[in-house]
Specification:
Its cofactor is FMN; Mg(2+). GO terms for molecular function: FMN binding; metal ion binding; phosphopantothenate--cysteine ligase activity; phosphopantothenoylcysteine decarboxylase activity. One of its GO terms (cellular component) is phosphopantothenoylcysteine decarboxylase complex. It catalyses: (R)-4'-phosphopantothenate + L-cysteine + CTP = N-[(R)-4-phosphopantothenoyl]-L-cysteine + CMP + diphosphate + H(+); N-[(R)-4-phosphopantothenoyl]-L-cysteine + H(+) = (R)-4'-phosphopantetheine + CO2. By secondary structure, the chain is an alpha/beta fold. About 25% of the residues lie in helices and about 30% in strands. It has helices at about 35-45, 75-85, 125-135, 150-160, 200-215, and strands spanning about 10-15, 20-25, 25-30, 50-55, 65-70, 90, 100, 120-125, 140-145, 165-170, 180, 185-190, 190-195, 200. The strands form four sheets. Strands 5-4-1-6-9-10-12-13 form an eight-stranded mixed sheet, sandwiched between helices. Helix 1 crosses helix 5. The protein starts with 9 loop residues before the first strand and ends with a helix. It binds cytidine-5'-monophosphate. Cytidine-5'-monophosphate (C5P) binds near residues 124 and 145.
Length: about 220
């Protein structure tokens, strides 16, 4: 795909969950399927962009025309994002684990019949917030916000806190995570645009059209 409104533009997308190891056989995870992020990468490629997709562990085929980099943990995702720069546009869709274990056990943790194991956690890097402060910050930086309550308030606060340009907010109190549809609100400095519930591939196409309108002048 070399033609289309995003021809020649470098687009970076993160997608999926991250897995944070507890020991060699166990991990901390979340319900993200990667579907929305993969659909966005596919839509961007179809519009002619040069797309790099940094994917956490998901069960999805690579969209055509997309360069995929597979990672497992948040720290691996941060390094892959760094290596994928520069980009004109970044869309951070991944549901990055907020915490990892402070040190994964080298051997499988065994039941002892006595004391329960205690998982000590450490905070993961905030990939989006760090990219916002990076000298190589993409000209358009889009974050996602999955919330279960006060969706718009949290999204507006997140826009300021993360230093990105847009937040795509959705209510995940239902079965959005892993599901096929998504109802989103696009929160920018100019206000809020709310879209009706749509299949994730249509959300992706609409979002990429809005992005192309914003960057192609
Ligand atoms: O703070 P919260 O996790 O709700 O923020 C969501 C947004 O930030 C998403 O765009 C997500 O991809 C990004 N994020 C990130 N690195 C983290 C946590 C979130 O890039 N460690």
């Amino acid at each position: 795909a070399e033609r289309g409104p995003l021809a020649g533009r470098r687009v970076l997308v993160t997608a999926g969950p991250t897995h944070e190891p507890i020991d060699p056989v166990r991990y901390i995870a979340n319900r993200s399927s990667g579907r929305q992020g993969f659909a966005i990468a596919e839509a961007a490629a179809a519009m002619g962009a040069d797309v790099q997709l940094v994917a956490g562990p998901v069960h999805l085929p690579t969209p055509s025309g997309v360069t995929r980099i597979d990672v497992e943990t948040a720290r691996e995702m941060a390094m892959a994002v760094d290596a994928a720069l520069p980009a004109d546009i970044a869309i951070m869709v991944a549901a990055v684990a907020d915490w990892r274990t402070a040190g994964a056990a080298e051997q499988k943790i065994k039941k002892t019949g006595g004391a329960l194991p205690v998982l000590e956690l450490a905070e993961n890097p905030d990939i989006l917030a760090e990219l916002a402060k990076d000298p190589r910050r993409p000209a358009l930086l889009v974050g996602f916000a999955a919330e279960t309550e006060n969706v718009l308030d949290h999204a507006q606060a997140k826009l300021a806190r993360k230093g990105c340009d847009w937040i795509v907010a959705n209510d995940v109190s239902g079965d959005v995570m892993g599901g096929s549809d998504n109802a989103v609100h696009i929160v920018t400095a100019d206000g809020v645009e709310s879209w009706s519930n749509l299949p994730k591939d249509q959300v992706a196409r609409k979002l990429m059209e809005k992005i192309a309108d914003a960057v192609v002048r």
